[in-house]
Amino acid sequence: MNGLPDKLHDIYEEVARRNAGEAEFHQSVYEVLTSLGPVVQKHPEYVDSEVIRRLCEPERQIIFRVPWVDDRGTVQINRGFRVEFNSALGPFKGGLRFHPSVYLGIVKFLGFEQIFKNSLTGMPIGGGKGGADFDPKGRSDNEVMRFCQSLMTELYRHLGEYTDVPAGDIGVGQREIGYLFGQYKRITNRYESGVLTGKGMTWGGSQVRTEATGYGTVFFVNEILKAKNDTFEGKRVVVSGSGNVAIYAIEKIQELGGTVVACSDSSGFVVDEKGVDLDIIKEVKEVRRARIADYVDIRGGAAHFVEDRNVWSVPCEIALPCATQNEINGDEARALITNGCRVVAEGANMPCSPDAVKYFTEAGVTFAPGKAANAGGVATSALEMQQNASRDSWTFADTEMRLEQIMRRIHNRCLVTADEYGQPGNYVAGANIAGFIRVADAMLSLGLV
Ligand code: GLU
User: Fold this and answer.
1) pLDDT tens-digit map of 190-205
2) Which homologous superfamily does the CATH classification assign to the domain defined by 212-373?
């Protein structure tokens, strides 16, 4: 990899060397560094104080054994992680991911992204991430509960409402947060609501948290469209994934008049030219926890299932990758461009490969990076913490209005910053630079810690 100014290049080389084999982490660091050239030119103090080098080294990394017993009585051993990346702006904040692909490189990429995303929200939250290589697929409720209890039996000592506040990510939703919170409460003998977010409504959760990442991504795209004097009305949209982010992105797109013609899961994708029926997707994915192919059995008629991972072959004007990292490669990006796609916004974390981003930018496709576009999830987590701290709870409408305002502010911050650094309309530069400056200034104020 090249194209970085000397000082940043040295930092990148050091990160790659010290974190050997962690490809996703290298990718996320490189992506941020490519935006920082004009910043270090204007503000050499960030280099002199080594604030960038410090940002690339987590404050603390925890790796631990998670033993549990499955329903057949067999002992299972998983590996748990929590990377506490940066707490200059507030307690470490970021989700837990349960997926067999989880290893230190994935947790570090997610934690690194989270620093800048959380900074961009303007809220008092640092960056962290965690998870385990546990595969929830096909596991019973009881197995998931035992796993969560074992994980928390180690993790609790590192958490606290002023220290580190996990939430969900892939494979971790309200059910898992419930088991984790129950175990935390039992061990500590404290009803410390603010220690986890994504809680249920009857035990300290916030309205809109479930919907927030998907809704927020669509609010962000709506701002992009508004800036072009356009709307969602009548637009063809493809959303990858069919988990929490995708489902609520689809819901909001439909509310705003767009038509979602395809969505997917790891087994393939469904195309429904009339527009996907969200109730059926919710039934298949949230209630049955089944494969997306079941959608077609229920829906019948016009819909069809394709057993292939490339949902990006379906023509659309707006594409929202909401599944997982590196799900759009260079070829897939080219197909999207050829088929007339004009806006891409990342609902997932780093779903577009560096090649894909390069092709979108060259082709004049508006590209919104995840750390801006999907920040609504963690922003609403911060709203949940605010409600917990004041022992209050707000209505759905009030919370949604705040989320929309936050997304509008992030959008504007990206554009203003991109302008200020000579790259008008470049959301990648705007998000990376604005996110970086807020956290870097806080780090400088706090001294060498
Ligand atoms: N996992 C989500 C993200 O990628 C949310 C994190 C949180 O709410 O703390 O931002």
Assistant:
1) 999 999 999 999 999 9
2) NAD(P)-binding Rossmann-like Domain (3.40.50.720)
